[in-house]
Amino acid sequence: MAGTLSSLNTALTALRFNRVAMDVAANNIANATTEGYARRRVEGTAIGAPAQPAMWSRYDGTGGGVATGATERMVDSFLDARARREHGAQSYLDVRAGVLQRVESGIGEPGDNGVAAAMADFRSGWHDLANNPGGDAARSQLLARAETVAGALRNQAANISNEQSDQRYRLQAMVSEVGTVASDLAATNASVAVAKLNGTEAGTLLDQRDQLALRLSELTGSVATQRADGGLDVTVGGVALVTGKDAGVFQISSGVTPSGGADGLSVGFTVVMGATTTAVPTGLRGEVGAVTDLLATTLPAYADGLSAVARTLADAVNAQHVAGYDLAGVAGQPLFSYDPTNAAGTIAVALTDPASVAASGVPGGGLDGSNADRLGVTGAADGDYQRLVNGYGTEVASVQRLAASQSLLTLQVDGAREQLSGVNLDEETVAMLQAQRAYEAASRVMSVMDSVLDTLINRTGLLR
Amino acid sequence: MTTMRVTQNMLTDRSVGSLQLGLSRLAKVQEQISTGRVLNRPSDSPTQTTAAMRMRSSIADQTQYVRNAEDGIGWLGIVDQTLGGMTDQVRRARELGLQGASTGTTSQTAREALASEVEQIRDGLVAAGNTTYLGRPVFGGVTSGSAAFDASGGFVGVPGEVTRTIAHGVKVRVDVLGTDVVGPDGASLFDDLDALVTSLRTGDTPGIRTGLSALEGRLEDLGSVRATVGVRYSRAEQAAQRGRDAVLDLSTSLSEVENTDLPRALVDLKMQEVAYQAALASTARVMQPSLLDFLR
């Protein structure tokens, strides 16, 4: 037979449990829009007969109320891992698309002010000169148009090299962010382990841990694995960056000088963990991977293509120009000068005197325009430039398409996470009302018990 | 059975996402309408961009060919006109020679008058031979000087061809070398006229007859040179016309590739606008209600 006062105790556990339920609902509502917050749920367990009754006794109660269990975080570690992977791929494509689009807007093709238009003008300048080989105006115009072509090429080359230099600074900023986030994650790992040992509520720490790991994946495409003590280990390109409470230092080993310049090598990274330094293999994802690929492959390829166009143009024009004779009948000098290591960035017009343009195909100072006529023929540079622009445009379009389809995947995974971990205000309101009603009912149980005991103690045996 | 759990954040994110999508589509169509171009950057359509760049290059070339041909037509026009004048003058000299030859009884004074008129014609022909176009003697080849013949009728030009490129790889010669018109120094039209003048002065009738037949030959030469010039003139003219047609055709094609189809873009704009408004309206309705509205 259960004790007379056990129902009072049962009501007390209900009061305690429902107060916790209301606290949890309040906390969920408060954090409904907090980034990285996973909703909590309090677990209640009915108290019944003990699994092993005391010797020579048996349990004859009807249940002893409710035990307030652990506050559970509604997360799925597989979904979290998936989200980290998709976010890494997404940030890689987004950064890449953003930079490629910015460079593309500086190309200005097809249009009236790009390199192609300048080259067409240059050609027709030669024809005008062939029509009027003695005219000072036609000669000056030709030199001005040559300068326009060289200027247009230099301008594009400068756009690309500025973008490269911006991206080097950006890479430095990202790498220092990786360092900060990695050491924050290591510190959080340590706190999680301690909290787990002494049984403290670690929900907020776990939220923080997941967010830091996600940010690391966005930055570097890193992979995180769960530790037994509740922390997350992170590897970048297969190299350990965070192991428990220890964070390695992620740093640039080559390609970018500390002052943000280029050192001529391809961009590489190392992780320094304690006394060991490990080189990170190429092929990183995330923002760092995107900037690395841009600096190592994409932007140099376009700059090289542009330089090849500049070189083809300058060489073809120079070869034909020195075969001709200027106004005084002297053999022509090269029209364009450039530095072979950076043709597009340094191409310039070497002649300043209009009379020195070699329009004539015969020596002796005659007004012949046959060399100018030959110079006006479309060279290979035109077609090369068109192919270059086409290739670049195709690359931009393809990255945009990839980023768009990746964003569908990322949205889907984020949606699945939100579906599990997000706070629904209606649900919380219902949970709160439920707890409120249960609390009221438990209070009523107490009053009823009180009244019953009053009857038993004060009224029993009284005849009056 | 599991039902999908929906949270307020999901609704917010999705609404914001679809509003953004609608707005960016609207911005795309708006860009096409306001710039009047569907190709605003190479990635809009890399293939079409290459086509557009080719066409722009061809248009620039063809425009230049038309200008070259028009310049050539100017040259050839002057050459033709000058050759016409020269033919008339040679014919007149021949008539004078005939007068001197047929009237064997002509007095010395009359023959002197004929001779001096032929001399005038000779000087006139030298002047015609020095005709210039835009400051360049049209019979002087590639000379940088201002004359093709000196006062005595000697050729002082520099042999060479003045050509104009009238189509890709097609050139037309727009000058005629002085020696091709009047013959080489020592055996030129001017020498024939000089001989005729001498024969007229001396009353050397056989000499006059020789001079007359020589002038006959010169007239034929002038005629054939003129015919050649005429052929070149019509070639240049046809090329100019072809070039203009090509520019027109290419511009039309370029516009088809590069420019916005306005009616279609406007219909697109209207559709995107409706879609965007629908997204706004549905967002406004979904975001409003909450269980709290119904709890008292």
Task: Give an account of the 3D structure.
The complex is a heterodimer of chains A (464) and B (296). Chain A has ten helices and eleven strands. Chain A is α+β, with helices and mostly antiparallel strands and 464 residues long. A four-stranded antiparallel β-sheet of chain A has the order 3-4-5-6. In chain A, a hairpin with a 2-residue loop joins strand 8 (268-273) and strand 9 (276-280). In chain A, helix 2 (77-105) runs parallel beside helix 5 and helix 5 (203-220) runs parallel beside helix 6 (286-322). The relative contact order of chain A is 0.14. Chain B is mainly alpha-helical. Chain B is built from seven helices and four strands. In chain B, helix 1 packs antiparallel against helix 7 (262-287), helix 2 packs antiparallel against helix 6 (205-258) and helix 3 (108-129) packs antiparallel against helix 5. The longest helix of chain B is centred in the N-terminal third of the chain and has 57 residues, at 46-102. In chain B, 35% of the residues are buried. The interface between A and B is large, with 61 and 53 residues.
Topology:
The complex is a heterodimer of chains A (464) and B (296).
Chain A: H1 6-30, E1 40-46, E2 66-73, H2 77-105, H3 115-131, H4 136-198, H5 203-220, E3 223-226, E4 232-236, E5 239-243, E6 246-247, E7 249-254, E8 268-273, E9 276-280, H6 286-322, E10 336-337, H7 343-346, E11 348-349, H8 370-375, H9 380-421, H10 425-459
Antiparallel strand pairs in A: 1-2, 3-4, 4-5, 5-6, 7-8, 8-9, 10-11
Helix pairs in contact in A: 1-10, 2-5, 2-6, 2-9, 3-4, 4-5, 4-6, 5-6, 6-9
Chain B: H1 8-35, H2 46-102, H3 108-129, E1 132-133, E2 136-137, E3 163-167, E4 170-173, H4 178-182, H5 189-202, H6 205-258, H7 262-287
Antiparallel strand pairs in B: 1-2, 3-4
